[in-house]
Amino acid sequence: PSGAPLHPAQAGSAALRPHSPSMDTKGKGEQGPTLDELKTQLRELRATVELMKSQQEMKQLVSELDEEKRIRLSLQVTVKHFIITGIFILICI
User: Fold this and answer.
1) What pLDDT score does 92 carry?
2) Is the pTM of the predicted complex or chain greater than 0.85?
3) Domain total for the chain?
């Protein structure tokens, strides 16, 4: 009968079996990545890490440059203040 409910053992048997990727690949005859593929992936990962390091160094340099700009602008304001004060003193003398 097509409308008959499944027996509990039939309905749950697939759900109760653990799923293991290693079982799937062994059964299909597939193998993992080759040594050359792993070496290529490792080179790519190293290149990515180096790129990330370079990007971090660039961010640090930009941050340091911004700080130097703030210091320079502050010094310029101070120098202008001293120049204006000096001119005012000279005028008053």
Assistant:
1) 87
2) no
3) 1
